[in-house]
Amino acid sequence: MPTPITASTLSALLSAALAQKPTRPLVLALDGRCGSGKTTLANGLSAQFPGCTLLRTDDFYLPPARRSPDWAHTPCANMDLSRLRDEALRPAYAGQPVAYRAYSCREGAYLPPAQLPAQPLVILEGSYSHHPLLRPYETLRVFVTCTKAEQTRRLQAREGARYADFAARWVPLEEGYFAQYGVEEAADFVVETTQGGTI
Q1: Cβ distance 84 to 57 under 8 Å?
Q2: pLDDT 10s per residue in the chain (199 long)?
Q3: What terms describe the molecular function in GO for this protein (predicted)?
Q4: What CA–CA distance (Å, rounded) separates 96 from 60?
Q5: How far apart are CA 64 and CA 45, in angstroms?
Q6: If residue 29 lies in a helix (H) or strand (E), which one and from where to where?
Q7: How deeply is 195 buried, as exposed, middle or buried, from its count of CB atoms within 10 A (0-12, 13-18, 19+)?
Q8: How many whole angstroms separate alpha carbon 111 and alpha carbon 117?
């Protein structure tokens, strides 16, 4: 089971690890429930460690035409995790520059290529970032969570009129993924954000 820690403790752990001048980049993967605060935590850490490589699973959705017919009922079936691994995570883990094209669901298209230099700290944040396909290229896995009531409050504030559809479609897929792969149990640490009011 993961060890409960605070965000500030996580920051201190990263500082201590980086001070040891590791021979390969430190890859921190932040997974957890939607609305738990993954993105906010990742943004805060990237501000504390300028120059780190920040990768987001949201950049690796599959275009609708490439999804399997039953994707809406199959956890991870809307994600291009192989591309995330091969184009971004594996080279970052190896201390190499990263070049990839993010897929924008909003635009319905791939964005111009992103070119990221090699950095000693890599942060991968987003749902499905602890998938078994990605784990070999991760140094530290943190599960970010909050109470169900707080998750509902945050998602209602974030999604507005889209909340009911979001909750009916995405939350069950996410929970299915957590259960199928024992994601929370396999993490190194868990950060509870309920009291922080993080979105």
Answers
A1: yes
A2: 899 999 999 999 999 999 999 999 999 999 999 999 999 999 999 999 998 999 999 999 999 999 988 888 888 899 999 999 999 999 999 999 999 999 999 899 999 999 999 999 999 999 999 999 999 999 999 999 999 999 999 999 999 999 999 999 889 999 999 999 999 999 999 999 998 755 4
A3: kinase activity
A4: 19
A5: 32
A6: strand 26-32
A7: exposed
A8: 18
Output the six-digit token pair for 163: 């909340």
Cα 169 to Cα 39: distance, rounded to the nearest angstrom = 20
CA 128 to chain centre: 6
Tell how strand 26-32 and strand 140-145 pair up: parallel
Polymer length of the chain: 199
Residue linked to tokens 């939607």: 34
Chain CA centroid to CA 180, Å: 17
Do 123 and 40 touch, CB atoms closer than 8 A? no
